[in-house]
Amino acid sequence: MVDLKGQYEGIKDEVNSSVLEVMESSAFINGPRVHQFQKELEAYLDVKHVIPCANGTDALQIAMMGLGLKPGDEVITADFTFAATVEVIALLGLTPVLVDVEPDTFNIDVKAVERAITPKTKAIVPVHLFGMCADMDSIMDLAEKHNLFVIEDNAQAIGANYTSGNGSKKKAGTIGHVGATSFFPSKNLGCYGDGGAIFTNDDDLAHIIRGVVNHGMYKRYYHDVVGVNSRLDSIQAAVLSSKLKRLDQYNKARQEAARKYNVAFEGEANIVTPVAKKECSGICSDCDCHVFHQYTLKIKNSDRDALAQHLNEKGIPCGVYYPIPLHLQKAYADSRYNEADFEVTNSLVKEVISLPMHTELDQEQIDFITSTVKSFVNG
Ligand SMILES: *Cc1c(COP(=O)(O)O)cnc(C)c1O
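That is the input. Now the predicted structure with pyridoxal-5'-phosphate docked in place:
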């Protein structure tokens, strides 16, 4: 699904020497490399504060802790996403409220969010799923109207640009009150272990969060709030600095691969390709709102699971993200939910399949993958 080795080959000398430098310096924790990467990411995202942490799941949890969300507060998020999002809501004793997604973008359905708002609702967590920004204009309007926090789960969309209706462009993850991302190796900006970060333009919130990540300390050995221990280490920061310089180039390579996939699947009645923008279904070579963390098809009138098995037999990796809606997971099932409210997620879980997507895909691989998919679906 990903070719981390091929990508490493291209940056090997630089990464090896910067990692060795960290070893020589012995500044493994909170070293200058972490600070340097923090500043570089702040500049890249055009955001006032980046707070590095240990992983993306922590980033989400710490963002919610920083906002002061309390047990009983309701937090609305998408039913069709990775479990980390809902997991931290539940872990903090908040009440997760799962809502349906849009059939074309796979992102949270703002109308469903609106219907789910109650007097207890405190926050919305849009997930920019598969690398494409959720409808942030509508989400921010709704949040303002109801006085809610917006926490962007940007684990899959780092580097994506969101263009508002008024023409202003912002990086995904910097639009809401706070954003969280992951540097897990397979993410668009991945390190060689675990890592994550929180972003915000709010000075007070940034200050609170800097304490939360460090055992609730604002002054050494004075613990003002209950915190956690969540750090990005210097070796990962060194790797990330090398990869951040190339992030736009990497995301362009993903967009180019997606464009080639789209061309190959053009005219296929039973294969629905991902939309890059709501307005432009189909091929889009210059949109930058989607950074294709995954390239995900919807397969109609054919057995998706049999297709996945067929691809595996042909040596083509593929993935089903995600096979079970969160509201049907044992850990998150709740009698409050009504199946009729999850029509889209319930059908997506049967139709979606993600094809190999990374920075090293070439035309020959894409031709082999797409012809194998097409001959199965039309078979
Ligand atoms: C990967 C991911 C996370 C969690 O990140 P980790 O670094 O693995 O903890 C959270 N949300 C989404 C949508 C993700 O894809």
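Residues 247-377 form a domain with the Aspartate Aminotransferase, domain 1 fold (CATH 3.90.1150.10).
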